[in-house]
Amino acid sequence: MGIIEAILLTVVTAATPLVLAAIGELVTERAGVLNLGVEGMMIMGAVLAFVATQATGSPYVGILAGIGGGALFSLLFGFLTLTLVANQVATGLALTILGLGISGQIGEAYVGMSGTKLPPIAIPGLSEIPYLGPLLFKQDLIFYISIALVIGVNWFLFKTRAGLKIRAIGDNHGSAHALGIGVIRTRYLAVLFGGACAGLAGAQLSLVYTPQWVENMSAGRGWIALALVVFASWRPWRVLAGGYLFGAVSISQLHAQALGLGIPSQFLSALPYVATVVVLVLISHNRRMTLINTPASLGKPFVPDR
C-alpha cells in the first residue's frame, strides 16, 4: 500500500498543472477564442515563479509572479487577436515560441540552482485518514486551488448570468453583440483568466513538481492541456477526470523505468503524447458529439459594427 500511495501522490502532482492549464483554456474557448499559446504562458509562469521565489525566499510570492507572467502574456495575445484581429492560430504559435525563448533567457542564470519547494498544507483531522488523507488533504496550495477552480468554473459557466453570456458569445458572437453583450471585453477577461491559470500551472512545475528551473521544463504540457479541453468536450468536470488520466499516463513512464521493465525509455517518454494523439483520433470519430459541444464561434474573429 505504501508503494501505491506513493504512485498516487506523484499522479496528483503530475495532473495538477494539466488541470489548471486546461480549465483556463476551457473558459477561453467557451468565449470563442482559440489560444494556442498555453505552452508559452506556462513556461513564462514557471520561470517567473522560480526567479521571484529565489529573490524573496517565499514560494507564495513566486505563485503570484507566475500568475502575473501568464496573465501579461495572455494580454499580449488578446491585444493582437482581439484588438488588431490577427489570426488566432498563428498568434498563439508565435507566442509559444516567444515564451520559450524569453524564459530561456530569463532563467539562464538560474539553471542548476536548488529551489524552494511549496510546503504542503495539512487539513486537521482529514489529513490523518489512512491513505486518502495524504492523497487529498495534505497537499500544496496549488492543488487545492486547482480543485476549487474546477468547481468554481463549472458553477460559473452553467449557473450564473455571466457564464451564460460567455457561452452565448462562444456560440454566436454576432447575436450576442446584437443583444448588447460586450463581446471584446468579455473575451479579454476570458483570455486573461486562461493566461493566469496557465501561469499558475507553470508555477506548479517549478515550485512543486520539480523545485528548480530547467529550460523548456513545460515539455509539451501546454499542448496536452489543449487536447484535454477537446477530450473533455468543454466540460469542467471532464477536464478534472481527463487531467488525472493524462497525469497517470505521464507518470507511468517513470515508474516503469524504476521497475526495470525493459521497455525503451524513448517509448515511455513518448507515452503522454501518444495517448494525446490516440484520444483525439477517437474523439474525431464521434463528429456529432464534437459539433454539439464545440463553441460555434471558436477561433473566428469578431469586428463590431461601426
UniProtKB/TrEMBL annotation:
Domain of life, source organism: Bacteria
Matching CDD domains: TM_PBP1_transp_TpRbsC_like (cd06580)
Transmembrane segments: 31-51, 63-86, 141-158, 188-207, 265-283
InterPro entries tied to this protein: ABC_transp_permease (IPR001851)
Keywords from the UniProt entry: Cell membrane, Membrane, Transmembrane, Transmembrane helix
Predominant place of localization: membrane
The protein's name in its UniProt record: Nucleoside ABC transporter membrane protein
